[in-house]
Design goal:
- The chain has about 475 residues and is an alpha+beta fold.
- The protein has three domains: about 10-270 and about 330-410, no CATH class; about 275-325, no CATH class; about 415-475, Nucleic acid-binding proteins (OB fold (Dihydrolipoamide Acetyltransferase, E2P), Beta Barrel).
- Helix content is about 35%, strand content about 25%.
- Strands 1, 2, 3, 4, 7 and 8 form a six-stranded mixed sheet that branches. Strands 13-14-15-17-16 form a five-stranded mixed barrel. It has a two-stranded antiparallel sheet with strand order 5-6.
- It is globular.
- The protein starts with 7 loop residues before the first helix and ends with a strand.
């Protein structure tokens, strides 16, 4: 097949359909969309004068959250403003029904398939710079030891004063780059971000003391020119992305605790203890380390930290293997009388998803539960069905992204057949053994030499062939 014939965008759309998604919005959604206007509304606490800012990916247009902080006697008071999507999308309307079925925005590399129409998610309900927007403010105080206190949640009017990016802010916070232009132009904004970073670092340190896991995740990032994938690069975390991650985790804890205290049923985000813990123990032993026989997130994180200190170059191999062995998270119904189901990886017992209502339906439902208190807008049976569908669709979205990553990588690697790479085993299934090459970060099947291998094993592989249409990347043991 000539190099320029394979249509990745068409393949992504077909992949969506095969995984149970509806990539096109029905006519009734478009009709409802025409009636929606930006929501500010009465009864909102006016916080629009605060120096809110957002930090997201370079290409993000659906801005779900903004942040602000101030030093107080008990530590650092943090406000996380979340887009009030519910104020524009009522339950049971055509847009809501479509979002409920889709459950998530799907990022397919060459194209994004939004859960909500882009006119909403990137405009009317997006916390865009310079626009007054209805929001849900999640407030908490971060003490010097990183503990969270004085949590509250309420509706507010917010205005994003500066839309910033992970790459630019991260390099500045780490001392590896100059301040972004908006930060350089405002001493107040620079001080604000430094204060937020201080709070985030305290939160992170506290979670780690409780056993939260730290992974060095490298995400495949296609470089696309004129609609064609030219190469695959790696996108990792930095100080700015960690800041937002730390704030979102804290905000989701506060939201979960608020709903629990109100005595209402809700949807929780849980990650259970790893079923393949014995393999994680075995993997640690290969590195000369010893883990307890029963799952222990603190011991596991200490092992990961020792691995990173001993060999930072290959730490990503270990991190990736453990992440695969952890298993995916899921959404579950939690009734007021139910015992808490925690998040093993984050070392938290009360956790939900509430900070991305433009992109995740579970977050929109959680927002409605909060805004309706003390009423209960959803019966338990409905919440249970929503949670199950969100889990299923999240898994389907992960598979769409995985398969499109393979197709994009197959296009990018088609001229590198015969080359050898360092790899780590990421899957052992009845269909075969799968390995991940770290540079570039792509995954493929091991066609020979797979006997005796398990997740986490490291090896050298040779690229045998690529097939963009089927998303096949075939390696052999070198």
């Amino acid at each position: 097949m000539p190099h320029d014939e394979f249509n990745l965008v068409a393949a992504a759309r077909q992949e969506m359909i095969e995984r149970g998604f509806s990539p096109d919005f029905p006519p009734e959604v478009e009709r409802q969309l025409a009636t929606i206007r930006p929501q500010t509304g009465a009864g909102l606490r006016d916080l629009s004068a605060l120096l809110w800012s957002s930090i997201d990916n370079d290409d993000s247009r659906d801005l779900d959250q903004v942040e602000w902080a101030e030093r107080v006697s008990g530590g650092i008071r943090v406000l996380v403003g979340i887009a009030d999507v519910d104020s524009a999308v009522a339950a049971g309307t055509p847009i809501d029904s479509h979002a409920a079925r889709e459950a998530t925005t799907v990022y397919a590399g060459v194209r994004t398939f939004p859960m909500l129409p882009e006119r909403l998610s990137t405009d009317l309900t997006s916390l865009n710079e310079g626009q007054d927007r209805a929001g849900v403010a999640i407030e908490f105080v971060v003490a010097a030891d990183g503990s969270i206190g004085a949590g509250s949640v309420y509706r507010a009017l917010v205005r994003n004063r500066a839309q910033l990016t992970y790459n630019a802010v991260g390099a500045w916070l780490e001392g590896k780059g100059a301040a972004p232009p908006k930060v350089a132009a405002s001493a107040d904004l620079a001080a604000q971000l430094k204060l937020q970073d201080e709070a985030a670092q305290a939160l992170r340190a506290a979670r780690h003391r409780l056993g939260a896991l730290t992974f060095d995740r490298l995400e495949a990032q296609p470089v696309i020119t004129d609609g064609q994938v030219r190469e695959i690069t790696a996108r990792g975390t930095n100080r700015a992305s960690q800041l937002i991650e730390d704030f979102m985790i804290a905000a989701n804890e506060v939201m979960a605790q608020t709903l629990r205290a109100a005595g209402v049923s809700s949807i929780r985000r849980v990650v259970k203890e790893p079923e393949r813990w014995p393999r994680i123990v075995e993997l640690a032993a290969q590195y000369g380390d010893k883990l307890p026989e029963t799952p222990d997130s603190g011991a596991l994180n200490a092992f990961l930290a020792r691995c990173k200190q001993a060999d930072e170059v290959h730490y990503a191999d270990v991190s990736l293997a453990v992440l695969k062995l952890m298993g995916p998270g899921e959404y579950v119904l939690l009734r007021p009388s139910d015992p808490a189901q925690g998040h093993f990886g984050l070392a938290v017992q009360d956790y939900t998803h509430s900070t991305a209502p433009n992109r995740r339906f579970a977050d929109l439902v959680t927002q409605r539960l909060l805004k309706a208190l003390p009423a209960k807008p959803y019966p338990d049976e409905a919440l249970d069905a929503i949670a199950r569908n969100c889990t299923l669709k999240e898994d389907a979205a992960r598979k769409v992204r995985r398969d499109m990553d393979k197709r994009m990588a197959a296009v990018a690697l088609r001229d590198r057949v015969g080359q050898t790479f360092s790899a780590v085993v990421t899957g052992v299934t009845p269909k075969g053994v799968f390995v991940r090459v770290l540079a570039p970060p792509v995954e493929g099947r091991l066609m020979h030499g797979e006997q005796g291998l398990d997740v986490g094993d490291r090896l050298r592989v040779k690229l045998l062939s690529t097939d963009p249409e089927r998303g096949f990347i075939d390696f052999g043991r070198a």
